[in-house]
Amino acid sequence: MRGLYVHIPFCDAICHYCDFVKHVSKGHDHNMRYLEALRKEILSYYQLYPHVDTIYIGGGTPTALSHDELIYLFESLTMYQPVEYTIEVNPESYDHQKGQLFKTYGINRVSLGVQTFHQKHLERLNRKHTNTMVFETIDSLKSLDIQNINVDLIYALEHQTVEDLHQDIDTIIKLDIPHVSAYSLIIEEKTFFSHQLKRNKFIQTDEDTEATMYDIVMDRFKEAGYEHYEISNYAKNNQTSLHNTLYWTLQDYIGVGLGAHGFIDKKRTYNHKAMSKYIIDPLKESVDQDETTLRNDHLLFLLRMTQGIDLNMVKSNYKHDIFELFPSLIQYIDDGLLIIENDHLKLTRRGLQLGNLVFMVFI
Ligand code: SF4
To answer: What stretch(es) of the chain map to CATH 1.10.10?
Structure first.
């Protein structure tokens, strides 16, 4: 299996928590210069890898592109016939005509940037959409028979109550959305919120409340029939994300676009983040991964998935028992963070809360 990630770095406004590679668009000519360089990069990889199983167009905000720009982008990808073809959508820059383009070009999955259904929290995050825009986007996608929809949800927002979170989850369940990615708000360096935090102008949710909220997210989606298949991801009717599962099972993916990274033929690739450099030559560096790094990455990613690590796979692939390779894992079993079930090593409920502690074993 092989995936292709395509990065569109333009946004109409910058969210206060965002540390992705993005900037406000400088207009059509600027967008087209980028899309032309992107097309060249896509074609250069296509010569080497003429088949991909998944495409994921992310950002930034892909729907910040105009109709004509989207057509240029989609035309750059028509040589591929992926089984899963995803695009990220922000409700404020979506319209039905863009949805029709998705349909025309074979896009069969949409990831919708919702984050919360509370206007006061959306405003605090500097998100520009309304609930009406979200509902209209979902109606439009469903009318085009694009049913495979993910909604991004953020919890542990400033001043968010447990009741607010319940209401957000209620709304997603009522909308009958098959996939949810739910993350707690992380304050990343160099974001607006991190500057505010340093000046005591931002109140961070305390750890206990954040843990309570994660419990609520896990319980509510499980009760509603979702499978909790990765630390932060939930799917109904087996509509798990094939593209993200490629990342978590250490399979190859090509990364194209500003600041994109990839993993291909046991090399990690890193593109330039500066537009002026990217346009001239996208690739900043390509780093060979040694066998130990590959093994450790593989095991760490597998542990993020709730099915865990197949212990027999470890023995046959890596010629050792996992506890010989990583004796400190035994302590985490004793501490109740890990459990062995059906020959799989998995995070327990408590381990899901404290995953980062366990993952340090592999770093
Ligand atoms: S829309 Fe997405 S990429 Fe753009 S600023 Fe907001 S979080 Fe970042």
So the answer is: 292-300+308-363
Measured by CA distance, the residue closest to atom 7 of ligand 1 is: 18
String of DSSP letters for 336-349: TSEEEETTEEEE-H
Nearest CA to ligand 1 atom 3: 60
- Strand blocks (E) in 165-239: 179-184, 227-230, 233-235
Task: Tell me the longest C-alpha to C-alpha distance in the chain.
Answer: 60
Q: In 3-state terms, what secondary structure has residue 108?
A: coil
Phi-psi group of 158: left, alpha or beta (phi > 0 → left; psi -120 to 50 → alpha; rest → beta)? beta
**Helical axes 131-143 vs 162-175, angle rounded to 10°:** 20
Residues of the chain with CATH 3.20.20.70: 2-247
Which atom in ligand 1 lies closest to the alpha carbon of residue 22? 3
Residues with CB under 6 A from ligand 1: 11, 14-15, 18, 20, 22, 59-61, 90, 113
Quote the tokens at residue 183: 């993350």
Q: Which residues pair with 175 in a beta bridge?
A: none
What DSSP line would sit under 247-259, residue for residue?
A: HHTT-EEEEESTT
Phi, psi of 245 (to 5 degrees): -65, -30
Is residue 157 within 8 A of residue 205, CB to CB? The reply is yes
The number of the ligand 1 atom at minimal distance from the alpha carbon of 90 is 1
Q: pLDDT tens for residues 159-214?
A: 999 999 999 999 999 999 999 999 999 999 999 999 999 999 999 999 999 999 99
pLDDT band per the 50, 70, 90 thresholds, residue 306: very high
Given CATH 1.10.10, say whether it is the number of domain 292-300+308-363: yes
Say what the pLDDT of residue 187 is: 96
State the angle between helix axes of 67-75 and 96-104 in degrees (0 to 180), rounded to the nearest 10. 10
The answer to whether 63 touches 89, Cβ cutoff 8 Å, is yes
Strand partners, 86: 56, 109
Evaluate whether 344 touches 308 at the Cβ level (below 8 Å): yes
pLDDT above 90: percentage of residues in the chain: 100
Q: How confident is the model at residue 38 (pLDDT cuts 50, 70, 90)?
A: very high
> What superfamily does domain 2-247 belong to in CATH?
Aldolase class I (3.20.20.70)
